[in-house]
Design goal:
The chain has 18 helices and no strands. It is an all-alpha fold and 445 residues long. The protein has a single domain, classed as Amino acid/polyamine transporter I, CATH 1.20.1740.10. Helix 5 runs antiparallel to helix 16. It is globular.
Amino acid sequence: MSARGQFSSRIGFILAAAGSAVGLGNIWGFPTQVAENGGAAFVLMYIILAFVLAYPVLMAELLIGRYSRSNMVDALGNLGGIAGRATGVWGLVTVSLILSFYALVAGWMIAYFASPIAQLLGMPDIASWLTTQSVMRDVLFCGLFLLLTAGIVLGGVSQGIERWSVRLMPALFVMILILIFYVATLDGAAEGFKRYLVPDFDRVFKPDLLIDAMGQAFFSMSLGVGTMLVYGSYMSKQERITSLGASVALVDIGVAILASLLIIPAMYVAAHNGVQIFSDSNTLISGPQLIFAVLPALFDSMGSVGIFVAIFFFALMVVAAVTSSISMLEVPVAYVTENKGFGRKATVWVMTAIIMLVSTVIANNFNALFGLVINATTKYSQPLLGLCLCIFAGWVWKRDQALQELKEGNPDAENSLFWKIWPWYVRFVCPVVIIVMFYRSLSAA
């Protein structure tokens, strides 16, 4: 038990856990959902649902993790026997597969970061190669990103994950703010700010908006795959866990809102400069096409200053990717080090090599596997894992054990509003909402 790592400070845990939640999806997915779903009205419902749905599930992971002081497989195994261990293994495989495709996407970010630098150095052929998809480019930069991730995880909890999270997360905020202020000075930005900040309250209670907001709230906090559970297992028993969980949720929400303040105005600046920002179905372009087509076209239209803006923007994207990837790699690393007797160094390199191998297979069979792996993990596996965690926390875990864990750092927890609501809420409400979301995603497929 004493050999396990532990976060050394409140701020270290908050920034590491929020960094796990803050990923590329916050920056390329959330802003366009906001713009298409009533602007600030969607943001309001997202904030409400983040605490109504995502926060209770987040607390389930953190509480189980700190109570068990172990990896996901052992933590759920201690609660639910063979079924618990099977769920833990399922989560471990899922998060490893997510990291396998995530590393490919993050590798593209590094390549797009390097491309304008190559232009500045007078190497146009290399700059063009860096932004042209090929198996060689994808595998090379995927490997580079995984090496960067492994280098941080090698340092352990306090000297690796925490140390770099308290550097990278503030840097992320600063970079977003600088870009927001710069974009605000450009022609067309005002229309984007209006699209974002002026709420369309007629859409607040439309089913599609509510379900989209619920889905964004749940998935943006990287719930269901064990990252928060493992981070919770590294949390000090003296910390008040409910307030730490709320802080993580607030930081994640804050980054999503700031990303919208950057991306939506930037898209309208691009439109002002003649760049197409709407798809054939008349919706704002989102996802990879937004990042790798719309925004680079915007940077190109800016002239010489666009090169520097591109470097800065893709540096931001790499930072966002790293803060998530280190938590993903830590999930299998924690399991192997605690169960197989391997040292951290050997485990990190072995797990990195395995994930790199899977990424290489995906890159070599991109059309067949890339979308398949994304859908299998994020659309199907992750919500079902979230459902299982609710069942373990609400139905399997003994109520008095959960209360005792909550009292660590907060002796009066039994009388708190959280304890009066959370046990039945995570038992009944969260599973129903997750099932509804899952059914809707299947119906829409």
